[in-house]
Amino acid sequence: MKFAVVGQIAEVERIGRGPGVKTLTYLRRAYGQGQWRKLKGKATVRLPNGALRKVELHWYEAHGIGKRDLKIKYYLDTP
Predict the structure, then answer these.
(1) Whole-angstrom distance, CA of residue 53 vs CA of residue 59
(2) Which of 2, 15, 18, 67 is least enclosed by beta carbons within 10 angstroms?
(3) pTM score, two decimals?
């Protein structure tokens, strides 16, 4: 599912880092070496149908590489 983040991601928390990231091998093969961290935060996104929804996002991030594999984990509002 494609979506666009509207504004900034708030309440960012680290879930895991280094060997605590289960997909570390995949991340290094796909995007390169780095200090990979798994993070979560809350944001407003625009869905393909044009709706704006408040969601919790999860993603991976490494210094010099940036955010990768953003996904919607939970919808925080009711449609």
Answers:
(1) 18
(2) 2
(3) 0.89
One digit per residue, the tens of pLDDT, for the chain of length 79 reads 699 999 999 999 999 998 888 899 999 999 999 999 999 999 999 999 999 999 999 999 999 999 999 999 999 988 7
Q: What are 31-34's contacts with CB under 8 Å, separation 24+?
A: 31/62, 31/65, 31/68, 32/62, 32/65, 34/62, 34/63, 34/64, 34/65
